[in-house]
Structure formats: C-alpha cells, structure tokens
Design goal:
two-stranded antiparallel sheet; 45% helix; alpha+beta
C-alpha cells in the first residue's frame, strides 16, 4: 500500500493532486495543472447552458443558432441576459 504515488485506473494515469470527477455517465481525470482552467470553463459553460434552457423552455426559442451560438444575435442576447441576471 502506498500514498501519493501515480496509479493506473481504467488505463488512465492518475497522479497525486489530479482531480477525479464522476457522475452517472462516467468519470474523468483532470491533471492538477489544468484543474483551475477547466473549472473556470465549466462555470462559464453552465451559465451559457442556463441561458439556453431558459430561452428554449420559457420563450419557445429554437435551438438552431442558439446552441452552439452560430447566430450572432445569440451572443448579444446572452450578454444582455448575463447583465440582467448578474451572472
């Protein structure tokens, strides 16, 4: 038995300090040096997905051009939504 040594788990190297995240769909290993960057990106993605869900469910907006935001108006709408919501 060892502590703080690299291991192999499901053919993936896991190093001390790495972040392991899992849900019902699977597990990912995030290298320690990328954890903050990935966490920040995940927060931004969650905010955008909340915006998309609101637009589709409450306003009946089509997902086309909204997710992914290929319509330039989607970016403007998201910016305004963020300001209104303080997010």
């Amino acid at each position: 038995i060892d502590i703080n040594v690299p291991i192999g788990c499901g053919d993936v190297a896991v190093w001390p300090g790495d972040v392991v995240v899992g849900d019902k769909e699977g597990v990912v290993v995030i290298p320690a040096h990328l954890a903050e960057e990935i966490a920040a990106e995940a927060v931004e993605m969650t905010v955008f997905e909340d915006f998309v869900i609101e637009k589709v469910q409450q306003e009946g907006r089509s997902i086309l051009g909204l997710y992914p935001p290929t319509d330039p108006q989607s970016a403007e709408d998201f910016k305004a939504w963020r300001q209104r919501k303080g997010r």
